[in-house]
Amino acid sequence: MSDRDRQYMQRCLELAAQAAGQTAPNPMVGCIIVQGEEIVGEGFHPAAGQPHAEVFALRQAGDRARGATLYVNLEPCNHYGRTPPCSEAVVAAGLKRVVVGMVDPDPRVAGGGIARLQQAGIEVTVGVEQAACEQMNEAFVWRVTQRRPFGILKYAMTLDGRIAASTGHSAWVSSPESRRQVHSLRSQVDAVIVGGNTVRLDNPRLTCHDISDRHPLRVVMSRRLDLPLEANLWQTDIAPTLVFTEETADRDRWRKLEDQGVEVVVRSPLTPSEVSAELFNRGLSTLLWECGGTLAAAALREGQIQKLLAFIAPKLIGGPPGYSPVGDLGLLRMDQALKVERSQWQAIGPDLCWTAYLDLVSGQEGVS
Ligand SMILES: Nc1nc(O)c(N)c(N[C@@H]2O[C@H](COP(=O)(O)O)[C@@H](O)[C@H]2O)n1
Ligand SMILES: [Zn+2]
């Protein structure tokens, strides 16, 4: 594995990122074909149901693919899904070498694509820029291995750990720079989830603002549908909104929401796991929980959160403990605290942005 291999794999990741937020339930994949020193084909997977990245790169390369090296950040598929196997297309095009970022954990592939290429006499190198490749498709990997969406809990809090003043006023805890970062994150996820209280208190839009024209599905969890008649989230010409409620919810509100183009779905009892399961069945991979502390705690307790994104603003608001980013987890001793791993932090404007993963390996996520 050479520096050139690494550079070409980084180019694959750049290409793949062009479809961020648009490929679920499929992964983000980029591919290039190099003949000698020249890139003769490039492509990325734009969306599920569309051709895979390898197909676009092969089409562009044409005859120049013969004897060339193909780079791709995910093992070429070897199955008939929505599209035919890329492994066969690669063999047919006469590639000499294939460089793969990571093995595809989808059980329909899982090494079969690599084996097929090797069987055809193609030299295969696996694991170039593997960490970056795994990072890019962390939600896809989670989805296919755990059969549920990857949950990210995002919140902004003051230095004294509050997400709002004692009145519930919260505009704004973090800086414009941090909020812009969140708008950008929304363009890369499949859905943003809030509870009814957030709709009542903040009237959020949950869009990407001017970052992108493509907005995530906006999801509200409200048991009773005691929601405002007018709210930014009911403007469904901007982006779709899905409200989860329970059987006993206010029928009049229900009808009024549907009249505004909001989809209403019943799950009784309404829990984060039920919502995640339904969104999984709809093909979503990444869910961004932008909810208050009570719902955040429920999602954590039920193991629906895999990653945390905390914006910490350099200010103090004080007041009674109520508006904390994570409500009651039922933990009584400090040694029961949920541990996080792979912590990273960076300055964003005046704020600190802390990213971490719940300890997925030991299975501690989810508190019973
Ligand atoms: N290597 C590779 N390149 C792409 O561009 C891809 N989209 C995939 N996806 C793999 O194939 C599965 C989806 O197949 P269909 O799009 O339904 O045919 C997906 O789960 C990945 O395993 N791989
Ligand atoms: Zn494929």
From TrEMBL:
Reactions accelerated catalytically: 5-amino-6-(5-phospho-D-ribitylamino)uracil + NADP(+) = 5-amino-6-(5-phospho-D-ribosylamino)uracil + NADPH + H(+); 2,5-diamino-6-hydroxy-4-(5-phosphoribosylamino)-pyrimidine + H2O + H(+) = 5-amino-6-(5-phospho-D-ribosylamino)uracil + NH4(+)
Details of cofactor binding: Binds 1 zinc ion.
Needed co-factor(s): Zn(2+)
Active site: 54
Residue span, CMP/dCMP-type deaminase domain: 3-125
EC number annotated for this UniProt entry: 3.5.4.26, 1.1.1.193
Keywords for this protein: Hydrolase, Metal-binding, Multifunctional enzyme, NADP, Oxidoreductase, Riboflavin biosynthesis, Zinc
Keyword Ubl conjugation: no
Sequence positions that bind substrate: 170, 186, 206, 290
Record NCBIfam families: eubact_ribD (TIGR00326), ribD_Cterm (TIGR00227)
Similarity remark: In the C-terminal section; belongs to the HTP reductase family.
Name of this protein: Riboflavin biosynthesis protein RibD
Protein species of origin: Synechococcus elongatus (strain ATCC 33912 / PCC 7942 / FACHB-805) (Anacystis nidulans R2)
